[in-house]
Amino acid sequence: ITLLRNTIRLHENKEALIKNDSLYVEGKSVDSYTFSKDYYWMASNNSVNFTDSRLFGLVPHDHLIGRASIIWFSKEGYSGLFKGYRWNRFFTRVK
To answer: Most exposed: 16, 37, 71, 82, by fewest CB within 10 Å?
Structure first.
């Protein structure tokens, strides 16, 4: 709820606050909210030292810089140091 409040305040430019575990937008309690922009959830594969949407919230489309074009590394999660590499995906184009 804090990440939603921050997104509404910072990127939607509306008054939003949390009272008694409820979200208030423009002074009214809301059960749902429709964003006016497209937002993305940015995920990190580092669960310990993460810097992603768990930390800074949703990212508006107009804040994205660049575009993914190639997969340079691909590995199954939690497969250990020497296992789980998806060699067929290394240095392939993003479709």
So the answer is: 82
Query: What's the chain's length in residues?
Result: 95
| 79 CB neighbour count, 10 Å cutoff | 11
Tokens of 23: 């979200």
For the chain, give the secondary structure using H, E and C.
CHHHHHHHHHHCCCCEEEECCEEEECCEEECCCCCCCCEECCCCCCCCCCCCHHHHCCEEHHHCCCCCCEECCCECCCCCCCCCECHHHCCEECC
Nearest CA-CA partner of 15 in 23, 71, 53:
23
By C-alpha distance, which of 16, 37, 36 is closest to 27?
A: 16
Cα–Cα distance measured from residue 34 to residue 83, given in angstroms and rounded to the nearest whole number: 43
Q: What tens digit of pLDDT does each residue of 40-93 get?
A: 988 877 777 778 888 888 999 999 998 888 988 889 888 888 999 999 999 999
